[in-house]
Amino acid sequence: MVKICCIGAGYVGGPTMAMIALKCPDIEVAVVDISVPRIAAWNSEVLPIFEPGLDEVVKACRSRNLFFSTDVEKHVSEAGIVFVSVNTPTKTRGLGAGKAADLTYWESAARMIADVSKSDKIVVEKSTVPVKTAEAIEKILSHNNKGVSFQILSNPEFLAEGTAMEDLKSPDRVLIGGRETPAGRKAVQALKAVYAHWVPEDRILTTNLWSAELSKLAANAFLAQRISSINAMSALCESTGADVAEVAYAIGKDSRIGSRFLNASVGFGGSCFQKDILNLVYICECNGLIDIANYWKQVVQINDYQKSRFVQRVVSSMFNTVSGKKIAVLGFAFKKDTGDTRETPAIDVCNGLLGDKALLSIYDPQVTEQQIRRDLSMNKFDWDHPQHLQPLNLSDSVNLVQVSKDAYEATKNAHGLCILTEWDEFRKLDYQKIYQQMQKPAFVFDGRNVANVVELRKIGFIVYSIGKPLDP
Ligand code: NAD
Known about the structure:
By secondary structure, the protein is α/β, with parallel strands linked by helices. It folds into 2 domains: 2-199, NAD(P)-binding Rossmann-like Domain (Rossmann fold); 220-465, Rossmann fold (3-Layer(aba) Sandwich). It has 18 helices and 14 strands. The strands form 3 sheets. The chain has a 6-stranded parallel β-sheet with strand order 3-2-1-4-5-6, with helices on both faces. α18 (453-459) links the parallel β13 and β14 (462-465). The termini are far apart. The structure holds nicotinamide-adenine-dinucleotide (NAD). Nicotinamide-adenine-dinucleotide is lined by residues 7-13, 32-35, 38, 72, 85-88, 105, 108-109, 127-128, 157, 159, 161, 271-272.
Protein backbone atom coordinates (compact mmCIF):
# COMPACT_ATOMS: atom_id res chain seq x y z
CA MET A 1 0.00 0.00 0.00
CA VAL A 2 1.31 3.48 -0.93
CA LYS A 3 1.76 5.70 2.11
CA ILE A 4 1.21 9.43 2.22
CA CYS A 5 1.96 11.64 5.18
CA CYS A 6 0.88 15.25 5.60
CA ILE A 7 2.67 17.49 8.11
CA GLY A 8 0.12 20.03 9.39
CA ALA A 9 -3.45 19.09 10.33
CA GLY A 10 -5.01 22.51 9.77
CA TYR A 11 -7.66 24.01 7.48
CA VAL A 12 -5.76 22.71 4.45
CA GLY A 13 -3.98 19.55 5.65
CA GLY A 14 -7.10 18.03 7.29
CA PRO A 15 -9.64 18.44 4.45
CA THR A 16 -7.20 17.76 1.56
CA MET A 17 -5.95 14.54 3.11
CA ALA A 18 -9.50 13.46 4.00
CA MET A 19 -10.43 13.84 0.33
CA ILE A 20 -7.37 11.87 -0.83
CA ALA A 21 -8.23 9.10 1.67
CA LEU A 22 -11.85 9.05 0.45
CA LYS A 23 -10.98 8.89 -3.23
CA CYS A 24 -7.94 6.60 -2.94
CA PRO A 25 -8.84 3.60 -0.76
CA ASP A 26 -5.58 1.97 -1.90
CA ILE A 27 -3.51 4.71 -0.25
CA GLU A 28 -2.84 5.00 3.50
CA VAL A 29 -2.91 8.64 4.59
CA ALA A 30 -1.48 9.89 7.89
CA VAL A 31 -2.02 13.50 8.94
CA VAL A 32 0.45 14.55 11.62
CA ASP A 33 0.79 17.66 13.73
CA ILE A 34 2.78 18.88 16.71
CA SER A 35 -0.42 20.22 18.27
CA VAL A 36 -1.72 17.57 20.66
CA PRO A 37 -5.21 19.14 21.11
CA ARG A 38 -5.65 19.52 17.36
CA ILE A 39 -4.90 15.86 16.70
CA ALA A 40 -7.10 14.82 19.64
CA ALA A 41 -9.95 16.83 18.07
CA TRP A 42 -9.41 15.19 14.65
CA ASN A 43 -9.74 11.83 16.42
CA SER A 44 -12.89 12.90 18.29
CA GLU A 45 -16.54 13.49 17.40
CA VAL A 46 -16.02 17.28 17.27
CA LEU A 47 -13.48 18.08 14.56
CA PRO A 48 -11.19 21.08 15.12
CA ILE A 49 -12.58 22.94 12.11
CA PHE A 50 -16.07 23.49 10.76
CA GLU A 51 -16.41 22.80 7.06
CA PRO A 52 -19.62 21.60 5.40
CA GLY A 53 -19.33 17.92 4.41
CA LEU A 54 -16.04 17.33 6.25
CA ASP A 55 -17.47 15.31 9.15
CA GLU A 56 -18.99 12.72 6.82
CA VAL A 57 -15.77 12.19 4.87
CA VAL A 58 -13.62 11.93 8.00
CA LYS A 59 -16.04 9.49 9.59
CA ALA A 60 -16.05 7.32 6.45
CA CYS A 61 -12.26 7.07 6.25
CA ARG A 62 -10.90 7.45 9.79
CA SER A 63 -9.17 4.29 10.98
CA ARG A 64 -9.71 2.76 7.51
CA ASN A 65 -7.00 4.55 5.51
CA LEU A 66 -6.99 7.95 7.23
CA PHE A 67 -5.09 8.44 10.49
CA PHE A 68 -4.39 11.48 12.64
CA SER A 69 -1.31 11.33 14.83
CA THR A 70 1.26 13.35 16.77
CA ASP A 71 3.94 10.79 15.93
CA VAL A 72 5.34 13.01 13.21
CA GLU A 73 8.70 11.29 12.73
CA LYS A 74 7.31 7.75 12.45
CA HIS A 75 4.77 8.63 9.76
CA VAL A 76 7.20 10.83 7.82
CA SER A 77 9.83 8.10 7.76
CA GLU A 78 7.31 5.50 6.51
CA ALA A 79 5.77 7.63 3.73
CA GLY A 80 6.74 7.78 0.06
CA ILE A 81 5.04 11.14 -0.44
CA VAL A 82 5.23 13.80 2.28
CA PHE A 83 2.97 16.82 1.96
CA VAL A 84 3.93 19.83 4.05
CA SER A 85 0.93 21.97 4.93
CA VAL A 86 2.21 23.97 7.88
CA ASN A 87 1.29 27.60 8.49
CA THR A 88 3.30 30.29 6.68
CA PRO A 89 2.16 33.52 8.38
CA THR A 90 3.51 37.02 7.84
CA LYS A 91 6.76 37.67 9.70
CA THR A 92 6.21 39.87 12.71
CA ARG A 93 9.81 40.85 13.41
CA GLY A 94 13.21 41.11 11.80
CA LEU A 95 14.01 41.39 8.11
CA GLY A 96 10.83 41.79 6.06
CA ALA A 97 8.59 42.09 9.14
CA GLY A 98 5.00 42.85 8.22
CA LYS A 99 5.39 41.56 4.66
CA ALA A 100 7.66 38.53 4.17
CA ALA A 101 6.41 35.00 4.82
CA ASP A 102 7.61 33.44 8.06
CA LEU A 103 9.04 30.08 6.98
CA THR A 104 10.10 28.97 10.46
CA TYR A 105 7.55 26.14 10.56
CA TRP A 106 8.47 25.02 7.06
CA GLU A 107 12.17 25.04 7.84
CA SER A 108 11.72 22.99 10.98
CA ALA A 109 9.54 20.48 9.07
CA ALA A 110 12.19 20.22 6.31
CA ARG A 111 15.00 19.70 8.84
CA MET A 112 12.99 16.96 10.51
CA ILE A 113 12.30 15.24 7.15
CA ALA A 114 16.05 15.38 6.38
CA ASP A 115 16.87 13.87 9.79
CA VAL A 116 14.39 10.99 9.89
CA SER A 117 14.23 9.83 6.25
CA LYS A 118 15.76 6.47 5.42
CA SER A 119 14.07 5.94 2.03
CA ASP A 120 13.54 8.13 -1.07
CA LYS A 121 10.71 10.63 -0.82
CA ILE A 122 8.69 13.12 -2.77
CA VAL A 123 8.25 16.24 -0.65
CA VAL A 124 5.24 18.32 -1.66
CA GLU A 125 4.82 22.00 -0.90
CA LYS A 126 1.14 22.27 0.01
CA SER A 127 1.55 25.41 2.09
CA THR A 128 1.63 28.70 0.20
CA VAL A 129 5.28 29.71 0.01
CA PRO A 130 7.33 32.45 -1.69
CA VAL A 131 8.56 31.66 -5.18
CA LYS A 132 11.98 29.93 -4.99
CA THR A 133 11.28 28.27 -1.63
CA ALA A 134 11.91 24.84 -3.15
CA GLU A 135 15.53 25.87 -3.71
CA ALA A 136 15.98 26.47 0.04
CA ILE A 137 14.20 23.23 0.90
CA GLU A 138 16.48 21.28 -1.44
CA LYS A 139 19.50 22.71 0.39
CA ILE A 140 18.11 21.63 3.78
CA LEU A 141 17.15 18.16 2.58
CA SER A 142 20.56 17.61 0.98
CA HIS A 143 21.95 17.29 4.52
CA ASN A 144 20.35 13.87 4.95
CA ASN A 145 23.26 11.48 5.57
CA LYS A 146 21.58 8.20 4.62
CA GLY A 147 21.85 8.61 0.86
CA VAL A 148 18.16 9.40 0.48
CA SER A 149 17.05 11.13 -2.71
CA PHE A 150 14.33 13.80 -2.43
CA GLN A 151 12.22 15.34 -5.16
CA ILE A 152 10.44 18.60 -4.30
CA LEU A 153 7.11 19.38 -5.91
CA SER A 154 4.94 22.45 -5.62
CA ASN A 155 1.24 21.57 -5.35
CA PRO A 156 -0.44 24.72 -4.03
CA GLU A 157 -3.95 24.43 -2.63
CA PHE A 158 -6.75 26.51 -4.14
CA LEU A 159 -9.63 25.47 -1.87
CA ALA A 160 -11.76 28.17 -0.29
CA GLU A 161 -12.87 27.79 3.31
CA GLY A 162 -16.61 27.22 3.57
CA THR A 163 -16.65 25.27 0.29
CA ALA A 164 -13.46 23.26 0.85
CA MET A 165 -14.95 19.79 0.37
CA GLU A 166 -16.74 20.73 -2.85
CA ASP A 167 -13.60 22.49 -4.12
CA LEU A 168 -11.53 19.39 -3.35
CA LYS A 169 -14.03 17.02 -4.91
CA SER A 170 -14.34 18.97 -8.18
CA PRO A 171 -11.36 21.31 -8.41
CA ASP A 172 -11.12 23.84 -11.27
CA ARG A 173 -7.56 22.60 -11.54
CA VAL A 174 -4.83 20.81 -9.65
CA LEU A 175 -1.43 22.38 -10.18
CA ILE A 176 1.80 20.39 -9.90
CA GLY A 177 5.20 21.98 -10.45
CA GLY A 178 8.42 20.01 -10.53
CA ARG A 179 12.02 20.05 -11.66
CA GLU A 180 12.51 19.52 -15.38
CA THR A 181 14.78 16.50 -14.88
CA PRO A 182 13.97 12.78 -15.37
CA ALA A 183 13.60 12.33 -11.59
CA GLY A 184 11.52 15.50 -11.32
CA ARG A 185 9.20 14.37 -14.12
CA LYS A 186 8.83 10.94 -12.49
CA ALA A 187 7.83 12.60 -9.21
CA VAL A 188 5.26 14.75 -11.00
CA GLN A 189 3.78 11.60 -12.57
CA ALA A 190 3.58 9.90 -9.15
CA LEU A 191 1.62 12.78 -7.62
CA LYS A 192 -0.51 13.07 -10.75
CA ALA A 193 -1.45 9.40 -10.30
CA VAL A 194 -2.84 10.19 -6.83
CA TYR A 195 -5.11 12.98 -8.11
CA ALA A 196 -6.04 10.96 -11.21
CA HIS A 197 -8.15 8.75 -8.89
CA TRP A 198 -10.89 11.40 -9.20
CA VAL A 199 -9.69 14.53 -11.03
CA PRO A 200 -10.07 14.49 -14.86
CA GLU A 201 -6.71 14.56 -16.60
CA ASP A 202 -7.31 17.88 -18.37
CA ARG A 203 -7.68 19.53 -14.97
CA ILE A 204 -4.28 18.43 -13.72
CA LEU A 205 -1.82 21.07 -14.85
CA THR A 206 1.92 20.58 -14.71
CA THR A 207 4.45 23.40 -14.80
CA ASN A 208 7.96 24.13 -13.65
CA LEU A 209 8.49 24.58 -9.90
CA TRP A 210 8.68 28.37 -9.91
CA SER A 211 5.55 28.83 -12.02
CA ALA A 212 3.56 26.65 -9.60
CA GLU A 213 4.88 28.48 -6.52
CA LEU A 214 4.20 31.90 -8.04
CA SER A 215 0.78 30.91 -9.43
CA LYS A 216 -0.63 30.50 -5.92
CA LEU A 217 0.45 33.99 -4.87
CA ALA A 218 -0.76 35.37 -8.21
CA ALA A 219 -4.16 33.66 -7.89
CA ASN A 220 -4.78 35.11 -4.44
CA ALA A 221 -3.56 38.53 -5.51
CA PHE A 222 -5.95 38.53 -8.50
CA LEU A 223 -8.91 37.36 -6.39
CA ALA A 224 -8.29 39.96 -3.70
CA GLN A 225 -7.77 42.61 -6.37
CA ARG A 226 -11.26 41.92 -7.72
CA ILE A 227 -12.73 42.45 -4.27
CA SER A 228 -10.79 45.67 -3.75
CA SER A 229 -11.84 46.84 -7.23
CA ILE A 230 -15.55 46.35 -6.57
CA ASN A 231 -15.15 47.82 -3.08
CA ALA A 232 -13.50 50.88 -4.61
CA MET A 233 -16.56 51.15 -6.89
CA SER A 234 -18.87 50.81 -3.88
CA ALA A 235 -17.54 54.06 -2.41
CA LEU A 236 -18.18 55.84 -5.69
CA CYS A 237 -21.68 54.34 -5.87
CA GLU A 238 -22.55 55.78 -2.48
CA SER A 239 -21.40 59.22 -3.58
CA THR A 240 -23.28 59.18 -6.88
CA GLY A 241 -26.52 57.24 -6.34
CA ALA A 242 -25.41 54.22 -8.38
CA ASP A 243 -26.06 50.80 -6.83
CA VAL A 244 -22.97 48.56 -6.61
CA ALA A 245 -25.04 45.38 -7.02
CA GLU A 246 -26.41 46.70 -10.33
CA VAL A 247 -22.95 47.79 -11.44
CA ALA A 248 -21.50 44.36 -10.53
CA TYR A 249 -24.32 42.64 -12.42
CA ALA A 250 -23.78 44.81 -15.48
CA ILE A 251 -20.02 44.40 -15.65
CA GLY A 252 -20.17 40.71 -14.69
CA LYS A 253 -22.23 39.99 -17.83
CA ASP A 254 -19.14 40.82 -19.85
CA SER A 255 -17.63 37.39 -20.44
CA ARG A 256 -14.14 38.90 -20.26
CA ILE A 257 -14.88 39.99 -16.67
CA GLY A 258 -17.28 37.32 -15.38
CA SER A 259 -19.67 37.60 -12.45
CA ARG A 260 -17.90 35.78 -9.62
CA PHE A 261 -16.06 37.52 -6.78
CA LEU A 262 -17.77 40.83 -7.44
CA ASN A 263 -19.71 41.21 -4.19
CA ALA A 264 -18.97 44.50 -2.50
CA SER A 265 -18.42 44.14 1.23
CA VAL A 266 -16.86 45.55 4.35
CA GLY A 267 -13.60 43.98 3.12
CA PHE A 268 -11.90 40.67 2.55
CA GLY A 269 -10.43 38.64 5.39
CA GLY A 270 -9.08 35.17 6.03
CA SER A 271 -5.60 33.96 6.68
CA CYS A 272 -4.46 34.09 3.05
CA PHE A 273 -5.31 37.12 0.92
CA GLN A 274 -3.54 39.82 2.91
CA LYS A 275 -0.63 37.58 3.88
CA ASP A 276 -0.03 36.39 0.33
CA ILE A 277 -0.25 39.86 -1.20
CA LEU A 278 2.17 41.24 1.40
CA ASN A 279 4.46 38.36 0.54
CA LEU A 280 4.18 39.24 -3.15
CA VAL A 281 4.91 42.90 -2.33
CA TYR A 282 8.03 41.82 -0.45
CA ILE A 283 9.22 39.57 -3.28
CA CYS A 284 8.72 42.42 -5.79
CA GLU A 285 10.68 44.79 -3.53
CA CYS A 286 13.49 42.25 -3.15
CA ASN A 287 13.65 42.03 -6.94
CA GLY A 288 13.83 45.83 -7.26
CA LEU A 289 10.31 46.06 -8.71
CA ILE A 290 9.11 48.92 -6.52
CA ASP A 291 6.31 50.18 -8.78
CA ILE A 292 4.90 46.66 -9.07
CA ALA A 293 5.12 46.28 -5.29
CA ASN A 294 3.20 49.53 -4.84
CA TYR A 295 0.53 48.36 -7.28
CA TRP A 296 -0.23 45.21 -5.22
CA LYS A 297 0.08 47.08 -1.92
CA GLN A 298 -2.91 49.18 -3.01
CA VAL A 299 -5.13 46.07 -2.94
CA VAL A 300 -4.49 45.74 0.80
CA GLN A 301 -4.70 49.48 1.41
CA ILE A 302 -8.11 49.69 -0.29
CA ASN A 303 -9.21 46.81 1.93
CA ASP A 304 -8.09 48.69 5.05
CA TYR A 305 -9.79 51.82 3.74
CA GLN A 306 -13.05 49.92 3.22
CA LYS A 307 -13.10 48.72 6.85
CA SER A 308 -12.25 52.15 8.17
CA ARG A 309 -14.87 53.76 5.88
CA PHE A 310 -17.49 51.39 7.31
CA VAL A 311 -16.61 52.37 10.89
CA GLN A 312 -16.73 56.05 9.98
CA ARG A 313 -20.15 55.56 8.38
CA VAL A 314 -21.51 53.89 11.52
CA VAL A 315 -20.19 56.62 13.81
CA SER A 316 -21.18 59.56 11.61
CA SER A 317 -24.69 58.15 11.02
CA MET A 318 -25.22 57.71 14.76
CA PHE A 319 -24.84 61.45 15.37
CA ASN A 320 -21.05 61.37 15.42
CA THR A 321 -20.63 59.22 18.49
CA VAL A 322 -21.24 55.63 19.50
CA SER A 323 -19.91 56.15 23.01
CA GLY A 324 -22.09 54.20 25.46
CA LYS A 325 -24.39 53.03 22.66
CA LYS A 326 -25.10 49.35 22.25
CA ILE A 327 -24.25 48.02 18.81
CA ALA A 328 -25.18 44.49 17.81
CA VAL A 329 -22.61 42.80 15.58
CA LEU A 330 -24.00 39.92 13.55
CA GLY A 331 -21.23 37.73 12.19
CA PHE A 332 -17.59 37.58 13.22
CA ALA A 333 -16.15 34.86 10.94
CA PHE A 334 -14.37 36.20 7.86
CA LYS A 335 -17.01 34.58 5.62
CA LYS A 336 -20.05 32.36 5.98
CA ASP A 337 -19.85 28.60 6.57
CA THR A 338 -16.61 28.75 8.51
CA GLY A 339 -15.66 29.39 12.12
CA ASP A 340 -12.34 30.87 11.01
CA THR A 341 -11.75 34.42 12.22
CA ARG A 342 -8.19 34.91 11.02
CA GLU A 343 -7.87 38.47 9.63
CA THR A 344 -11.65 38.82 9.65
CA PRO A 345 -12.78 42.41 8.92
CA ALA A 346 -14.93 42.11 12.06
CA ILE A 347 -11.80 42.52 14.19
CA ASP A 348 -10.96 45.93 12.75
CA VAL A 349 -14.57 47.09 12.65
CA CYS A 350 -15.18 46.05 16.27
CA ASN A 351 -11.92 47.60 17.42
CA GLY A 352 -12.82 50.79 15.55
CA LEU A 353 -16.20 50.98 17.29
CA LEU A 354 -14.69 50.09 20.66
CA GLY A 355 -12.18 52.90 20.10
CA ASP A 356 -15.17 55.23 20.35
CA LYS A 357 -16.36 53.34 23.46
CA ALA A 358 -19.31 51.56 21.87
CA LEU A 359 -20.82 48.62 23.77
CA LEU A 360 -20.76 45.61 21.47
CA SER A 361 -23.01 42.63 21.55
CA ILE A 362 -21.61 40.05 19.13
CA TYR A 363 -23.22 36.94 17.68
CA ASP A 364 -21.82 34.42 15.20
CA PRO A 365 -23.22 30.91 14.75
CA GLN A 366 -19.77 29.26 14.50
CA VAL A 367 -17.39 31.49 16.44
CA THR A 368 -16.83 30.97 20.15
CA GLU A 369 -16.68 33.64 22.86
CA GLN A 370 -13.08 32.65 23.51
CA GLN A 371 -12.13 33.30 19.87
CA ILE A 372 -13.84 36.70 19.88
CA ARG A 373 -12.15 37.86 23.10
CA ARG A 374 -8.76 36.58 21.92
CA ASP A 375 -9.09 38.30 18.54
CA LEU A 376 -10.16 41.64 19.97
CA SER A 377 -7.19 41.76 22.31
CA MET A 378 -4.59 40.77 19.74
CA ASN A 379 -2.07 43.19 18.28
CA LYS A 380 -2.73 44.09 14.70
CA PHE A 381 -0.08 44.87 12.13
CA ASP A 382 -0.30 48.61 11.41
CA TRP A 383 -0.22 49.50 7.70
CA ASP A 384 0.77 53.16 8.37
CA HIS A 385 -2.93 53.84 8.97
CA PRO A 386 -5.74 53.90 10.11
CA GLN A 387 -4.84 55.30 13.49
CA HIS A 388 -8.10 54.55 15.24
CA LEU A 389 -7.94 50.79 14.75
CA GLN A 390 -6.27 49.91 18.02
CA PRO A 391 -6.35 46.56 19.80
CA LEU A 392 -8.33 46.28 22.99
CA ASN A 393 -6.90 45.30 26.34
CA LEU A 394 -8.52 42.30 27.99
CA SER A 395 -10.31 44.12 30.80
CA ASP A 396 -11.95 46.52 28.31
CA SER A 397 -12.97 43.50 26.27
CA VAL A 398 -14.83 42.08 29.25
CA ASN A 399 -16.52 45.41 30.05
CA LEU A 400 -17.40 46.53 26.54
CA VAL A 401 -18.01 43.28 24.68
CA GLN A 402 -20.81 40.85 25.28
CA VAL A 403 -21.13 37.65 23.28
CA SER A 404 -24.72 36.66 22.53
CA LYS A 405 -26.35 33.31 21.87
CA ASP A 406 -28.43 34.51 18.93
CA ALA A 407 -29.28 37.54 16.80
CA TYR A 408 -32.34 38.42 18.89
CA GLU A 409 -30.42 38.52 22.16
CA ALA A 410 -27.68 40.56 20.48
CA THR A 411 -30.07 43.20 19.15
CA LYS A 412 -32.12 43.67 22.34
CA ASN A 413 -32.04 47.39 23.27
CA ALA A 414 -29.35 48.02 20.66
CA HIS A 415 -29.07 51.41 18.97
CA GLY A 416 -27.50 49.96 15.87
CA LEU A 417 -26.92 46.64 14.12
CA CYS A 418 -23.91 45.81 11.95
CA ILE A 419 -23.94 42.76 9.66
CA LEU A 420 -20.34 41.66 9.13
CA THR A 421 -20.65 38.07 7.82
CA GLU A 422 -23.04 36.88 5.11
CA TRP A 423 -24.49 33.92 7.06
CA ASP A 424 -27.71 32.69 5.38
CA GLU A 425 -29.60 32.91 8.67
CA PHE A 426 -29.18 36.72 8.68
CA ARG A 427 -31.27 36.90 5.50
CA LYS A 428 -34.15 35.14 7.24
CA LEU A 429 -34.29 37.01 10.55
CA ASP A 430 -37.56 38.51 11.78
CA TYR A 431 -36.45 42.12 11.31
CA GLN A 432 -39.87 43.41 12.44
CA LYS A 433 -39.27 41.77 15.83
CA ILE A 434 -35.71 43.09 15.92
CA TYR A 435 -36.89 46.61 15.13
CA GLN A 436 -39.42 46.50 17.96
CA GLN A 437 -36.83 45.59 20.58
CA MET A 438 -34.19 48.11 19.44
CA GLN A 439 -33.74 51.72 20.57
CA LYS A 440 -35.09 54.31 18.15
CA PRO A 441 -34.01 55.54 15.73
CA ALA A 442 -32.82 52.03 14.88
CA PHE A 443 -29.89 51.76 12.47
CA VAL A 444 -28.79 48.86 10.26
CA PHE A 445 -25.30 48.89 8.75
CA ASP A 446 -25.06 46.03 6.31
CA GLY A 447 -21.46 45.26 5.48
CA ARG A 448 -22.37 42.27 3.31
CA ASN A 449 -25.49 43.40 1.45
CA VAL A 450 -27.55 40.52 2.83
CA ALA A 451 -30.55 42.45 4.12
CA ASN A 452 -33.42 43.67 1.95
CA VAL A 453 -32.94 47.43 2.13
CA VAL A 454 -36.43 48.28 0.86
CA GLU A 455 -38.12 45.99 3.40
CA LEU A 456 -35.99 47.27 6.26
CA ARG A 457 -36.77 50.89 5.41
CA LYS A 458 -40.47 50.01 5.27
CA ILE A 459 -40.19 48.62 8.81
CA GLY A 460 -38.66 51.89 10.00
CA PHE A 461 -34.91 51.22 10.10
CA ILE A 462 -32.37 53.76 8.92
CA VAL A 463 -30.27 51.63 6.59
CA TYR A 464 -26.75 51.85 5.25
CA SER A 465 -25.78 49.01 2.92
CA ILE A 466 -22.35 48.96 1.26
CA GLY A 467 -22.45 50.61 -2.16
CA LYS A 468 -26.20 51.25 -2.13
CA PRO A 469 -27.84 54.65 -2.45
CA LEU A 470 -28.06 56.19 1.03
CA ASP A 471 -31.31 56.57 2.98
CA PRO A 472 -33.35 59.30 1.29
P1 NAD B 1 -3.27 26.07 10.01
O1 NAD B 1 -2.60 27.03 10.93
O2 NAD B 1 -4.73 25.80 10.16
O3 NAD B 1 -2.53 24.64 10.10
C1 NAD B 1 -1.16 24.49 10.11
C2 NAD B 1 -0.82 23.35 11.07
O4 NAD B 1 0.57 23.04 10.95
C3 NAD B 1 -1.04 23.69 12.55
O5 NAD B 1 -1.96 22.77 13.11
C4 NAD B 1 0.35 23.56 13.18
O6 NAD B 1 0.33 23.03 14.50
C5 NAD B 1 1.03 22.60 12.23
N1 NAD B 1 2.48 22.66 12.27
C6 NAD B 1 3.29 23.75 12.23
N2 NAD B 1 4.58 23.37 12.25
C7 NAD B 1 4.60 22.02 12.32
C8 NAD B 1 5.63 21.06 12.36
N3 NAD B 1 6.91 21.41 12.30
N4 NAD B 1 5.29 19.74 12.45
C9 NAD B 1 4.00 19.37 12.48
N5 NAD B 1 2.97 20.24 12.43
C10 NAD B 1 3.27 21.56 12.34
O7 NAD B 1 -2.94 26.58 8.54
P2 NAD B 1 -3.83 26.34 7.21
O8 NAD B 1 -4.93 27.33 7.14
O9 NAD B 1 -4.13 24.90 7.08
O10 NAD B 1 -2.76 26.77 6.11
C11 NAD B 1 -1.63 25.97 5.83
C12 NAD B 1 -0.97 26.51 4.59
O11 NAD B 1 -1.88 26.41 3.47
C13 NAD B 1 -0.57 27.98 4.67
O12 NAD B 1 0.62 28.17 3.96
C14 NAD B 1 -1.71 28.68 3.95
O13 NAD B 1 -1.30 29.91 3.38
C15 NAD B 1 -2.06 27.69 2.87
N6 NAD B 1 -3.44 27.77 2.38
C16 NAD B 1 -4.46 27.99 3.25
C17 NAD B 1 -5.77 28.02 2.77
C18 NAD B 1 -6.94 28.27 3.70
O14 NAD B 1 -8.04 28.50 3.21
N7 NAD B 1 -6.75 28.20 5.00
C19 NAD B 1 -6.03 27.79 1.41
C20 NAD B 1 -4.95 27.54 0.56
C21 NAD B 1 -3.66 27.52 1.06
